[in-house]
């Protein structure tokens, strides 16, 4: 459980401070554990970033499906409503995964963590829509909302939902 608690604290730290600014000493302090304990579970800053991304990934997928209607159009629209809530509460500066990729474009392990996350979100959208051929189009709308949120806010979600209704 301690390992997961540390990953949760790292997720919050990277979300609030970005990836470049917090030193390992600051991450240790924000995690509430000793430096030795932090390094025991996550022996490098890269490992800390990946742990935060993987923790967030799990939390995000559960959040998208929270109180979801049965699969179909309503389930997809619900996911976009959940995306709006997520952006408001947890990601006002955009997608943490994309921010990590931007901060470390040459890091293969971070890139793989982001790719896995994005692929699972795309698959979930296809599954919830009951039309796997729509997965990529729905994913592009999802990513568009995430990217446009800091500039457009609610309008990004409203427009995406209108597009979904035209697509399906």
3D architecture notes:
With 168 residues, this protein is an all-alpha fold. Helix content is 79%, strand content 0%. The chain has a single domain, classed as Tetracycline Repressor, domain 2. It is elongated. The mean pLDDT is 95.
Please indicate the count of domains: 1
As for the CATH topology, it is Tetracycline Repressor, domain 2
Which CATH class is shown?
Answer: Mainly Alpha
How far do the termini sit from each other?
42 Å
With helices defined by DSSP (H or I, 4 residues minimum), what is the helix count? 9
CATH architectural grouping: Orthogonal Bundle
In what range is the share of β-strand residues?
under 5%
Characterize the largest beta sheet: strand count, sense, and whether it forms a barrel. none
How does the overall form come out from the CA principal axes?
elongated
| Beta strand count | 0
Mean pLDDT: 95
Low-confidence runs of at least 5 consecutive residues: none
Helical/strand content category: mainly alpha
What is the chain-wise order of helices and strands? Answer: HHHHHHHHH
Please identify which CATH superfamily we are dealing with. Answer: Tetracycline Repressor, domain 2
Work out the helicity level. over 70%
Radius of gyration: 17 Å
Keywords: DNA-binding, Transcription, Transcription regulation
GO molecular function: DNA binding
InterPro entries: Homeodomain-like_sf, HTH_TetR
Domain HTH tetR-type: 1-60
Defining traits:
mainly alpha; 168 residues; 9 helices; DNA binding; transcription; TetR family transcriptional regulator; single chain
How is the topology of this model organized?
Layout: H1 2-17, H2 24-31, H3 35-41, H4 45-65, H5 73-90, H6 96-103, H7 108-129, H8 135-152, H9 154-167
Helix pairs in contact: 1-4, 4-5, 4-7, 5-8, 5-9, 6-7, 7-8, 8-9
